[in-house]
Amino acid sequence: MELFYSQDIQNDIVVFSAEESKHMIKVLRHNIHDNINVVDGRGSLFHCSIIDANPHSVRAQINSSQPNWNKRSYNLTMAVAPTKNNDRFENFVEKACEIGVDTIVPVISQHSQRRVYKRERAEKIALSAMKQSLKASLPVVTDAVDFNDFISKYKDTSAIKLIAHCMDSDKHSIVELLRDNKQDSYIILIGPEGDFNEKELNLALDAGFKPVHLGTSRLRTETAAILAVTSVYLANID
Amino acid sequence: MELFYSQDIQNDIVVFSAEESKHMIKVLRHNIHDNINVVDGRGSLFHCSIIDANPHSVRAQINSSQPNWNKRSYNLTMAVAPTKNNDRFENFVEKACEIGVDTIVPVISQHSQRRVYKRERAEKIALSAMKQSLKASLPVVTDAVDFNDFISKYKDTSAIKLIAHCMDSDKHSIVELLRDNKQDSYIILIGPEGDFNEKELNLALDAGFKPVHLGTSRLRTETAAILAVTSVYLANID
Hints:
Number of strands of chain A: 14
Largest sheet of chain A: 8 strands, parallel
Number of helices of chain A: 7
Shape of chain A: elongated
Order of helices and strands of chain A: EEEHEEEEHEHEEHEEHEHEH
Oligomer: homodimer
Distance between the termini of chain A: 23 Å
Strand content of chain A: 25-35%
Helix content of chain A: 25-40%
Radius of gyration of chain A: 20 Å
């Protein structure tokens, strides 16, 4: 199964971007009257037929639609410190979007190795991973957010909030916490290589984040983040 | 904590390779009498002091040793079809070694996108990930193995054997199977993008492999393999 993407949908007609049109016509050799599957990044799948095979701006007619297509049973926000090596953060973005995530927030804390984050490339990776993994919802990658602002913003949410840190303290494993706290909404904070500082950790704990450990392996930031996404996915598998 | 690696250990003296010596002396600026931690890739950690800071061939004296250092409670063999894009397979190797794996076997099946596999680069990645994730055992990356030969070799093992495939059939989730089959040894087969063929699947089932699904997301080969490694890790977390 092959998915195309567009948010430009009016009166049962889908119009595709120049990039998507070129890929559809020039690379995949689609033509007028071909049936294609389209997702809008907002949860719906559309079965369409191409009515204009212009390689700069394909148009297709919607024949039928499926809202909430392949919808997950939970919502996951991952707040992760951008890694020094940007490829590693982007690797997390790809894997997280394939496995299942709704929002990715690059969080800047005191020990962050990267303080500026350009989200354009990550957004492209998210789009490609959405199509690859047959999902209809496009994960959001936000601009970089200061740690304190992030905590304030999510202070009053009812979601399960977890913070993975390396300081010595009383922590449960992420497996145990996810098993004992079934929820449909999760927020997970993953710190930079140098960990959160004590003030940041206390701020998160005060805001209701539960401290978790990810087992005994010392993991890179992006590996810890992929593991956290996988933990939520596996805890909700049928 | 920072780990160095050597298998050249005789009479309480560790000798380091030219590459490791250069890194230790020229990059990390270690000098004679410095205390360093060394792993042998066979499970032991050694606390040592540098007695010769020759940047081409450092020598260190072992002061104390810890066998079975950070030892996992299980043994995991991952048999994975090499991906067309080699970076993706190497990404799996890195993540698997960080999280926890003992043996990685590139398996060539009918639909494999890559039929030749050079293991040298993967071995370097495994070594680096072992040190990064504070382990003393070096995961083995084997040469590429034909699917039929792989199945024959592991026919009579007592390990839990799982095969993740995409064909319609009666399958349990990997979470359920790992929960119901506690074991200290696992072998997991992950197929190529085009999946195993029916003959291969039947051969594996006849040899005692249990079919599993990895949830509803359609995952790339290397993502499925990372997810399988993570599933075993999480099923054995304290």
